Amino acid sequence: MDRIQSIKSFLAANPSDSFLQHALALEYIKLNNEEEARRLFEAILTRDPGYIGSYYHLGKLLERTNHPSLAIEWYEKGMEQAKAAGDQHAYQELRAAYEEIAE
Q: Which residues contact 93 (CB under 8 A, 6 or more apart)?
């Protein structure tokens, strides 16, 4: 069974699992299915704003698909969440991505 089908089978049992949805979004990115990856990242972050890892990947996807202003918005939201969670590493990663595009 390929990775996407495997992840989908796990999601069938737990459809709101952020980890599994994030993993599925990353698989879609590998296949250049950025629309589906974006949908998943946005669903994760709408439902679970504390799932900090998805902010970076969504921002990078939006940069690649020529949506820099949206990428900046998501980086800003991610920095707020990372700061609130005390996740300095994620904060620095998001800030570096933000500064790179906001210049």
A: 56
Residue 14 burial (C-beta neighbours within 10 Å; 0-12, 13-18, 19+)? exposed
List the domain boundaries for the chain.
Answer: 3-102
User: Which CATH fold topology does 3-102 show?
Assistant: 1.25.40
Dist. CA 48–CA 33, nearest whole Å: 22
Q: Mark out the alpha helices in the chain (DSSP H runs).
A: 3-13, 18-30, 34-47, 53-64, 68-85, 88-102
Contacts of residue 48, Cβ cutoff 8 Å, sequence gap at least 6: 18
Q: Is 7 helix (H, G, I), strand (E, B) or coil?
A: helix
Please state, in angstroms and rounded to a whole number, the distance separating the CA atoms of residues 34 and 83: 28
Tens place of pLDDT per residue across the chain (103 aa): 599 999 999 999 999 999 999 999 999 999 999 999 999 999 999 999 999 999 999 999 999 999 999 999 999 999 999 999 999 999 999 999 999 998 7
